């Protein structure tokens, strides 16, 4: 139903105002999406006719908006979008597209704003496109950030892998550099940086160190071989360990100090220390529980003499089951001055490396008593 304002009017040289009649008339129903030619004419009393024409187009087709932006998620409150939306119309024009809020506006932080863009053609038809702008300034959260890793393997992995969650409900990918499974430099510490970026460009970072340590600890005070006659064996000092990471790894021996060792046997004791990287140092020694005493040979018989400076021959000697010849010590020693007219007990002993002792004893008697001279002379006649 089309009208027009003002209505056309006519004037004539005879001073009259002839009526103007338009066909189709204002207020008529015009065909949709077509152009109709309207002819208006006015005739004066002399039969003279004046004509004016114009077109009426009933356009009910809205413009078409192109490049309507997708939803925007950003961490910058000053938001723009590219490309800008544009519009075309069936009348061949390109209506302006107006967005509210406009590109370049400051949008509220950590909120979602609906942007409405519209374009109107000359007929008043309107096209609308909408999209959301979210200004997100909250970084993702990284979970399971690994602790520092110390290992002796240059191909390093970590478990579990770090993961990330974001306030938009997504799970951004976490990328670590160097990546798990990479070959790391040996005997060095490498800083690993893992980051996760959400759709708005917010970044979360977690870092940890990877040390590839291929140097074993150093064990100090590794015991020498132990030979004892006591089955409950200890050793002093205990072995200790130091590591290049500054720690003092525990040294564990098997069998442990204080254990009961088999008698008359030799047992190999292995002590090891492992550092945080898994490097192992080992020290070993033997423990022999020897409960067999040495054997003393040539133990002297009892000695009776009138000389206070007493010796004996041969000297007693000793042999042991460990193949050694322990020293035999006699008290009083041969060559000592013994008390006169007394009997002295001499004790000779020999001790082996295990502490087993053998003893032999004999008596020394220094007898200097005189019983007088027997006179054998004959009487003379």
UniProtKB/TrEMBL annotation:
Domain of life: Eukaryota
Keyword tags: Repeat
PROSITE patterns on file: HYR
Pfam families: HYR
All copies of domain HYR, residue ranges: 1-57, 58-137, 212-291, 292-368
Signal peptide: none
InterPro entries, A to Z: HYR_dom (IPR003410)
Cell wall biogenesis/degradation keyword on record: no
Protein name, entry field: HYR domain-containing protein
Species of the source: Patiria miniata
